[in-house]
Amino acid sequence: AALFISYRRVAKIAAPIVTLSEVTHRIARNEPNVAPFEPSPFAEINELHRNFQTMATAVAQREADLQERNEELAVTEGELRSQVEEYLTIYDALAAEKAKLDSILASMNEGLSIQSLEYQVLLQNRAHRELFGDSLGKYCYEAYSHNTSFCSDCPVRLAYEDGATHTRLRKVK
Length: 173
Fold this sequence. Notes:
Blueprint (H helix, E strand, L loop, with lengths): L1 H27 L14 H65 L5 E3 L5 E4 L1 H7 L7 H6 L9 H8 L11
Antiparallel strand pairs: 1-2
Helix pairs in contact: 1-2
């Protein structure tokens, strides 16, 4: 009888621990906790159950937040891929146009150069290089007139100032 009473007493003490163990296994397997937890006469076990439930809720919230962030990242990735494709399409079109421009400039017999707003030579065709040498990156007044500042009658400067067409003929050779 004493053995039977001891067995029942141990089973009564162990039952909430076994139930709590089942709850923690469900939490670990990410399963919903559908079985109700019967409060234990032991406060520590009830506290452990509340803590596990709080942790499970926090983990579920973090997973939901991560899922939302992953969806946002997927949308951003799609937008970036679209922008990269658009950039590459535009780049290819610009490269084709540059090839056309280079071909046109190369076929011209007249010397032609293009200057920036700061009077630096940005582009020269072959005929222009034959007349003045390679002047890319140099200031036009240095490359063409060997001056230290722009020429007062410079047609490029006058065109920048008034937007009109200005020409100046010069005999080079």
